[in-house]
């Protein structure tokens, strides 16, 4: 998807929610929008320092926290990385297919998987408030 279109959409979401899309937040958003897979916070910091020499780890982590709170990004827990969500205008179940070979991450949205997990959890009295399912393997390009 076009990065400028994503930025415009993100700004609109921020305006609608009364949130500030600061220049630093926008730069981190743009960095994530330009990547195919997950990106670590320190890799983002090194790229951010190219235009923001004074950037520190806290700068990136604050921006990532903001982007996460608004649903703009997903954290890939198993690799401690972050990726842009291209569907941030609505909440949705998330399943991530993570290629262990090239690092590409594909985002899926299966309501069937989400409902099954919620139903199984409910049978034990557990209420799921947030779910991201991660699956590791090899993508189509790397499977051979």
From TrEMBL:
Keywords, A to Z, come to: Cytoplasm, DNA-binding, Iron, Metal-binding, Repressor, Transcription, Transcription regulation, Zinc
Name the needed cofactors: Zn(2+)
Query: What residue ranges carry the coiled-coil annotation?
Result: none
What Gene Ontology biological process does one annotation of this record name?
Answer: negative regulation of DNA-templated transcription
Enumerate the subcellular locations listed in this protein's record, separating them with semicolons: Cytoplasm
GO cellular component, as recorded: cytosol
InterPro entries per the UniProt record, alphabetical: FUR, Fur_C, WH-like_DNA-bd_sf, WH_DNA-bd_sf
Domain of life according to the entry? Bacteria
Instruction: Enumerate the residues binding Zn(2+).
Output: 99, 102, 139, 142
Q: How is the cofactor bound?
A: Binds 1 zinc ion per subunit.
**A molecular function (GO) term:** DNA-binding transcription factor activity
Q: Which NCBIfam families match?
A: PRK11639.1
What is the annotated quaternary arrangement, including any partners?
A: Homodimer.
Q: What is this protein called?
A: Ferric uptake regulation protein
